[in-house]
Each structure stands twice: as structure tokens, then as C-alpha cells.
Amino acid sequence: MTVIFPITGYIFVGLFGLLIGSFLNVVVHRVPRRESIIRPASHCPHCGHVLRAWENIPVLSWLLLRGRCHDCGSPIAWRYPALELLTGLFSVVVAWQWAIHHAMSLRWSLLPALLFTWILLALTMIDLETQLLPDRITKPGMLIGLLINASALLWSGLALTTAWNALLGIVLGYGSLWLLATAYLKMTGKHGMGGGDLKLLGLVGAWLGWQAVFLTLFIAAVSGGLVAVALLLGGKGRDYAIPFGPYLALGGWLMLLWPHEIVQGYLHLLGG
Ligand SMILES: [Zn+2]
């Protein structure tokens, strides 16, 4: 069955993405603090007042409240509306690319593509704020990716790759960074990468298959290297620990959306 992806589809995906972004804000705030993401209800971290429905609308509430808590006036970080907007925007980009890649028809595999995007967004924000990639997200994230792709053994509608590719992806993703990190430790006596980075590349392998692992790492190394050089030239960045997670997430997301274009581009690069 072919269903043309309509403009109302994009609007729906965008609005749904805003709501997911609102939930991701809760995840980003609470998971590193080891708090439940379900209870208690959303509240101001300063005065504890529970948000009323109109104070909990993505982006709009932040604008209406002019970035301050209604009760105590404490500032609400711009990260909140920013993550909501980003999640909405990225969700629309995924739907748009999915429609193009699949001849403008609606596919069930859009759902795991969106879920993968949201997990990467949450991990990126947490890593930027805390320099950590929590096991509470990376481990179940890896398992969910593997299960979704294993569902292809019964029905291929949801899967992004095969079960075997996913399993090899975990081994290759985790294993390759483990080798790099171990070699780095042996040579310098310093820890170059956190265990979270290993699990994040394993997670990308679980969702996209082993074929995506190398170029995800390549994109992460190049983009991370460029930013590090820019920071050094700007006089910043020395002795400043730059988390690697956001670059791995970027690489994984680009490999989700443009795998063929990136492989072609890389081969072109090799060929001079
Ligand atoms: Zn307050």
C-alpha cells in the first residue's frame, strides 16, 4: 500500500515532536540526578510549584512566561524551549527524508527512525550538561534497537536493518572504541574516552547495523576535531574536557538520514 505523505503529516509530526521535546527536557533534567521520569509531576526546581496545564505547553509557555517561573520568578533555562524546538524540527526532517527515500510513501520504519533521533537528542543534551552518557539510557537504548531490528525475523516493516547486522553493529561499535580507548590508555596512561562513548557507538550499531559504525566514528572524529581546533584557535578549549557523545550522536543521525550520500562522499574523498 502506498500512502503519499501529506503536508498535514509533517504538521502532525512537528507538533508531536514538540511534545516529545518537552518530555526529553524531563529526561535530561532527571536521569543524571537518578530521579524518576514519571513522578512527581513537572514542577519548578526552585519553589517546587507544580506546573499548571497552560505553563506546560512546549515553547509557547516559555514565551508567555517570558522565561521565568510564574510563582517565584526564577529564570527557566533557554535549553527548555530550545530542545522542544529542535526535537520538533528534527522530527520533521526525519519524516521528510523518510518520505523521499521511500518514494513519498508512509512507512512504519519512520517510527524507529524518530525514536532513534529522540534518544540521540536526549543523550547529546545530557552529555553537554553533565559530560556523562547515562547507562539508564544507553543500555536499554541498545537493547530496544536490537529488538526492533530482530522483529524483522517476523515482519520486516519496522526494522532499519537485519538482526544480524544489528548484533554485529553492537560488537563492532563497542569493540572498536574499546580497542581505541585501550590503546590510548596504554600509550598515554590517560583515559581518552568514557565508557558511555563505547556504549553510544554500540547503540548506533544496534539501530543502523555494523555498516554504519565506521562512518559514524569518522564523522564524529572529523566534526569533533574541527570544533576542538576552533576552540583552541579561539583561545579556549585547553584543559577543557570536550564531550565526544554529541559528535557520535551527530554521526549516527547523519548515517540514519543520508547513508548512501555519505558513503559516496567518503569514497569520493578517498579517490581524491
Ligand atoms: Zn518557581
From TrEMBL:
TM region positions: 6-28, 106-128, 140-160, 166-185, 206-234, 240-258
Protein name: Prepilin leader peptidase/N-methyltransferase
Keyword check for Transmembrane helix: yes
Family, as annotated: Belongs to the peptidase A24 family.
GO-annotated molecular function: aspartic-type endopeptidase activity; methyltransferase activity
Record lineage: Bacteria, Pseudomonadati, Pseudomonadota, Acidithiobacillia, Acidithiobacillales
GO biological process: methylation; signal peptide processing
Catalytic activity: Typically cleaves a -Gly-|-Phe- bond to release an N-terminal, basic peptide of 5-8 residues from type IV prepilin, and then N-methylates the new N-terminal amino group, the methyl donor being S-adenosyl-L-methionine
Pfam family of the protein (one): Peptidase_A24
Species this chain originates from: Acidithiobacillus marinus
Localisation per UniProt entry: Cell inner membrane; Cell membrane
